[in-house]
Write a structure and sequence with these properties.
By secondary structure, the protein is an alpha/beta fold. 41% of the residues lie in helices and 23% in strands.
Length: 227
């Protein structure tokens, strides 16, 4: 069963999350500070991290940033603050989902399961995709354009893969949410827009672009035809 690391200094929250997740068969590790969490992450290599923003030493945003510099492990961020800007920052830094406190522990369990499910590549999914000089190795989770490796965060890679698998098709935000974040993702379409904008920045100057269809969605297009 999957291993989950909880990084949160609120003991009551940690115990509540542990209770519900261990009932589902998950193995749990926990840390009360960001630095301890990073140390445990390196030692245990968990399958998912539940990360609070407000920590006593370094905040969760910085912890998320440091994790993403070296690791693609899925991250579910927690926060007592409900401001949209916090959610957007967390997603931009590479978090896979965001949940505000107080939360229903059953909803947290559902999100954890959804994130872990999305990380499993289905047998019917091709191992590689080639579009517009873009090469995606799904099994290795590596994308290159004309041989140059794209440095993509977890959701950026997943989003680019969905676009490549549906090249030439306009995909609306609800479909992208369901395919990249899962049917039981409790987010909003703004999440898609944020990730598309960041993906565009990383594709700038290449043979691949993501075109906006106002009021409809997005489509991957070849901005430069191969010579």
């Amino acid at each position: 069963m999957s291993r989950i690391l909880i990084i949160d200094d609120e003991a009551n929250i940690v115990e509540l999350v542990k209770l519900y997740l261990t009932r589902e068969g998950f193995t749990i590790e926990s840390a009360g500070t960001g630095r301890d969490g990073l140390s445990i992450l390196s030692a245990t290599n968990p399958d998912l991290v539940i990360l609070d923003i407000m920590l006593p030493d370094i905040d969760g945003f910085e912890v998320c940033k440091q994790i993403r510099a070296k690791n693609r492990v899925p991250i579910l961020m927690l926060s007592a603050r409900r401001e949209d800007v916090d959610k957007i920052i967390g997603l931009e830094l590479g978090a896979d989902d965001y949940l505000t406190k107080p939360f229903n522990p059953r909803e947290l369990v559902a999100r954890v399961k959804a994130i872990l499910r999305r990380g499993q590549t289905g047998e019917s999914t091709p191992k590689v995709v080639d579009v517009c000089r873009l090469h995606i190795d799904i099994a290795r989770r590596e994308a290159t354009i004309e041989g140059k490796i794209l440095k993509l965060r977890t959701k950026e890679f997943d989003l680019l893969t969905v676009f490549a698998l549906n090249q030439g098709i306009v995909l609306n935000r609800d479909r992208l949410l369901s395919e990249v974040w899962g049917y039981d993702f409790y987010g909003e379409t703004r999440t898609v827009d944020v990730h598309v904008n960041h993906l565009r920045e990383k594709l700038k100057g290449s043979s691949v672009d993501i075109e906006t269809f106002r009021g409809t969605g997005y489509k991957l297009v070849c901005s430069k035809e191969p010579g």
